[in-house]
Design a protein that fits this description.
Blueprint lengths: L5 H21 L62 H12 L5 H21 L2 H7 L2 H16 L3 E20 L2 E17 L5 E4 L5 E12 L8 E7 L2
Antiparallel strand pairs: 1-2, 2-3, 2-4, 4-5
Amino acid sequence: MGNIDVSTIVFAVVAILVVLRLRSVLGTRTGAERPPRDPDAPPPSERKGFGFPPGGRIIPFGQKAPTGAPPENAAPADRWKGFAEPDSPLAAGFDAVAAVDRDFAPDRFLAGARSAYEMVVTAFAAGDATTLRRLLAPDVFANFNGAIEARRAARRTMTTTLVSLDRAEIVEARLSGSLATLAVRFAAKLATATRDETGALVDGSSDEPVDHLDVWSFARDVRSSDPNWQLAATQTVS
């Protein structure tokens, strides 16, 4: 012991204390530490392929996106409430149309369809081909106009009064290519009278309304800048 330098012991003790102090502050490396951050690296929001799932949701790097959760931009299941049941064929048809026509809304469409029903019925009775041409697809217009011409050739006239439009509901929606088609079932009471050239009644009645149940299909090319729908087919429901 007499050969040990006291100053060497003092320095050794000081060195041990310094090491212990640094260890308590910095900790020890276990091999699982994150690599040091590069101060010149871009922030996470500017990196590509760094755990950003589609749709803009940010999932922390190294974690999986939650499973079973719908994406934030997914439409709610009851988006067509009052017009179609969730997961029904009609709802799927609405989804398809809305995917290519962001302005599509069943309530607005149905309001327009109700107006079109009254306009078509009235224009047909009056023989107003100009109005019908705007509202009907070409082949449907040809059929309507043919009936009008036949009526004129027989020297007959028609009057129709829409007593009430009791119900209008969308029963089918589909998208084929760029052509969207929606079918509407109308329940209405109409008073229709047809008279000959002398004014004598030959068919129907202007005073006794009759129940009518029809399905009208309206179509629109969603690529067109024209937002209007045209009547593409009619069917009487017995």
